[in-house]
Amino acid sequence: MITVSSVLAIPAHALSSLLRGRLESPENVAPSCQLGDEGCFTLLGVSVVGAVTISPEQLSFSYDKQLAKPTQMSDLVIIADRITQAYRDEGYFLSQAVVDRQALESGIATITVIEGHISQVEFDGTRTDLASPIMKGFTDAPIAHLPDLDRRLARIKAIRGMSVTSRIRPDPEDPSRHELVLTTDFDPVEGYAGLSNRGSERVGPLQAYGGVAFNSVLADRDQFRLNVFTTPVDPGEYARVSANYRYSFQPGDSLIFGAATALSQDGHNPNSPEIGGESLSLWMKYERPLIQRRTHRLYASVQFDAAHLENDWTSGGGYRDELRVARVALRGLQTDDGSKTYFFVELSSGLDILGASGESVEFRSRYDADASFTKLYAKTSYYHDIGKYFGIYALLWGQVSDGPLLSAEEFSVGGPVMGRGYGYGEISGDEGIAGLLELRAGFSPESDLISFAQGYVSYDAAMVWNDTPTGVRQKDMESAALGLRINILDRLSAGIELAKPLTRTPYDEDNRDWQQFFQMSVTY
């Protein structure tokens, strides 16, 4: 339906409250012409034609302060641009306002709004049958709404192994009609492999890891993934294998089942005479997207874990931890021009069910802890471009708990992400906080081999503590690092890093000298 409305002057209180914050009248400006000049006339009214989704009354902000003033065609173009921007601000990205060719002696100007819509969706590429059901009904909308398109494209991209690019072709016969072309690329098998020297001297230091994923193997939109992490020189020192199965429902929800097992020859704590240990964990997770937009996304999840962990000591003792944990979490991502913000918040509760561990001075990883607990864990990161070549990255972790925790649930810091001058799990405690600041300088060289190169310097600090009957026990550490990262042929990445402990001597070293690390990985 097309509506025509001639509006002379609309008071501010008549505007819709939905648009009041965005559709504001322009400031008073001096007339752009003088009556008597060629093409100059007194604007007595504006007829807005074709505005349905946003009513002509709501659009009167664009011209109400121009009424009864000398006006020329360039002023009408500015009014049309304001109307176009009003549509864009509400997500109607294919709509625009144009100034009709007209005789203006009457003082009444006509502006036509073209409410653009998608009249047809075409698919090209592989496994388009996975994407086409998600776009069903999109062409029924009378006007194209960017948030709706964002949600649908995000659901297509959420299909494991699927990537999609989009382009829009206008109809040369009808400016309101557009064709959306989606090109899909589906990889039935994906994988990755990597090597680093982040392990301790006792069990490495070389570490190898890899994984393979099979997409849409048992049903459309599912994935089976297998991951391996080990010390390649002697896999018997440490090896971990995990597998999970994910099924994604049409609305975008996902259900994941997973299992993992790990074996170590001498355990993870070098300060105790351990022989080795093993662990087995099972989990089930359900995740739902709450917001799916091109610039921001929000997901909620619920999860249940069951874990068995044990370590044996040379003295003949050891510990056995049985954990049954329920978790609820929120994670979100927001991207703007040159910046990205990520956050994750998780509330965990240890349940006294299905054989969960009670307190035991001799048979638990913590003598004063059991499997019943409540803790809150959060992490957030922020990146922002500084000019063309530089950027700043910040990372913050934290955890609080209602009491002592078994070792698997403690807040642990150390390794390539946080605590770069130290080994994995250098310090741990029931509660803690850690932060990292990294300055980056990178560019894309004009090379067929290297697609991106980045240098960086970083500083990190962390503190953990346990609230015990005898007082608060606290540990802290700081470290600095500098390094280089490169991407080769968009599939191979490599990095070298120099890291220095600043305030604490690493547990497997006798000094705080600079340490050298490398990492390389490939995806396929």
Automatic annotation (TrEMBL):
What organism does this protein naturally occur in?
Ostreococcus tauri (Marine green alga)
Which InterPro entries does this UniProt record tie to the protein? Hemolysn_activator_HlyB_C (IPR005565), Polypept-transport_assoc_ShlB (IPR013686), TPS_OM_transporter (IPR051544)
Keywords recorded for this protein, A-Z: Cell outer membrane, Membrane, Transmembrane, Transmembrane beta strand
Report what the protein is called.
Uncharacterized protein
**Residues annotated as domain Polypeptide-transport-associated ShlB-type:** 41-116
Q: Name one GO molecular function term.
A: protein transmembrane transporter activity
Q: Short name of one Pfam family for this protein?
A: POTRA_2
Instruction: List the GO biological process terms.
Output: protein secretion by the type V secretion system
Q: Where is the Haemolysin activator HlyB C-terminal domain?
A: 187-485
